């Protein structure tokens, strides 16, 4: 099975920026969408951003629109999440995920997940 490995998280102050990277490891797999989700302690896993692998079209949660940018590198087979103007509310464990069948914002439509990278934003 394909493994997704996230990196780039860290501890930053409000207003700072981070760039997360999702690097698949393993055999090539079919995917319709790649996405980022995040989960704060004691909270549900929430959708952050999604990108169509074929077309590059993007979609964002309202809470991050205008601040976050999801992108892909087809050659490197990687997905990125550029996070600007970070807020304490952005704190959480950020997961990369792949959906093989549908463009979706629902975690249950994603079959492959990474282990997460922690993003902590202090005030």
Number of helices: 0
What radius of gyration results from the CA coordinates?
A: 13 Å
From the spread of the alpha carbons, the general shape counts as globular
User: Which range does the strand content fall in?
Assistant: over 45%
Structural class label: mainly beta
* Mean pLDDT figure: 94
Helix content: under 10%
Outline the biggest β-sheet. 7 strands, mixed
Provide the low-confidence segments as ranges: none
In total, the number of strands is 11
Distance between the termini: 39 Å
Instruction: Give the H and E element order.
Output: EEEEEEEEEEE
Protein model, in words:
The protein is mostly beta strands. It contains no helices and eleven strands. The strands form two sheets. Strands 2, 4, 5, 6, 9, 10 and 11 form a seven-stranded mixed beta sheet that branches. It has a four-stranded antiparallel beta sheet with strand order 1-3-8-7, with no helix packed on it.
């Amino acid at each position: 099975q394909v493994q997704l490995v996230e990196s780039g998280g860290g501890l930053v102050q409000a207003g700072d920026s981070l760039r997360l990277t999702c690097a698949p490891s393993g055999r090539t797999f079919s995917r319709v969408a790649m996405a980022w989700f995040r989960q704060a302690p004691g909270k549900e896993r929430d959708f952050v951003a999604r990108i169509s692998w074929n077309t590059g079209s993007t979609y964002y949660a309202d809470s991050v629109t205008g601040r976050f940018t999801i992108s892909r590198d087809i050659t490197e087979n990687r997905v990125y999440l550029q996070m600007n103007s970070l807020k304490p509310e952005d704190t959480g464990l950020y997961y990369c995920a792949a959906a093989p069948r549908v463009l979706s914002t629902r975690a249950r439509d994603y079959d492959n997940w990474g282990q997460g990278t922690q993003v902590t934003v202090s005030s």
